[in-house]
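hi! just following up on the protien thing from before. the input was this:
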Amino acid sequence: MRVDRQNIIEEFKRQAGISSPSKQEGAMARYLRQRFVALGGEVTEDDAGRQVGGEVGNLLVRLPGTRAGEPLMFSVHMDTVGPCDGVEPVLDGDIFRSAGQTVLGADDKAGIVELIEALETARRLGIGHPPLEIVITICEEIGLVGAKHFDCSQLKARRGYALDTNGIDRLIHRAPGANRFEAVIEGREAHAGIAPEKGLSAIEVAARAIAAMPLGRIDVETTANIGTIEGGVACNIVPRQVRLVGEARSHDGDKLERQTAAMVAALEQAAASSEKLIDNEPVRARVQVDIEPD
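and the predicted 3d structure came back as:
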């Protein structure tokens, strides 16, 4: 199948010039609706935007088949990371680069361009295809939020491809499972300059827990990370509370559970070992962990 290089260039320039950060994909959605309608698609929008506080919901494009066959699904996403206002794509040989201090937005506009060009080429050359369902999600870059609010029961396709990866000649046939968690550690507040011994630092407990956790690349299938830590109110106050947000990922379900358990155990052990006497009473930190499978 011979694609049109110039069409690809012009299509990418148009899309890259549309700012579409997560929750602000309205302009991009309007463009894509018009684009896929012109290709003969029926476009519907769900209410994911309302649910997540964004400008627009996920789009579902249905294109009738030009030959018999089981329906086939393609998935792309319309949002990009920032900064993405005023993107100026520059073609350097065969590679697009950003001219300014913005991202290029190839994730995932390159995937959308590939899909549009494939459809236009198939139509131009009379290449048949089965019924197609194209899911274009919002808020992918902030945790697959749009996809999580998409009602998959409306899809007839049982097979599909997500056009969202880097490089070429690469097919990913499975994805890791993940456990995301939030841990809140409660200590005891005190004046750090007058009576620090009457306090129990939640940040110190968190630091000991993180230092004891296996993090980073655990093995070829498993990773773990603490992404954010926040707590305390002032430099002269022993911090009473700290909040950690982290995750574990693995292609192996048992490894995922073991890694998650190791991170939780580190938190619980750090809380247990924090016990001390304050005014002749034993005081120890408390920890609450909420885990959300993804």
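The first helix runs from residue 5 to 16.
Helices lie at 5-16, 26-38, 48-52, 106-125, 145-148, 202-212, 253-272.
cheers
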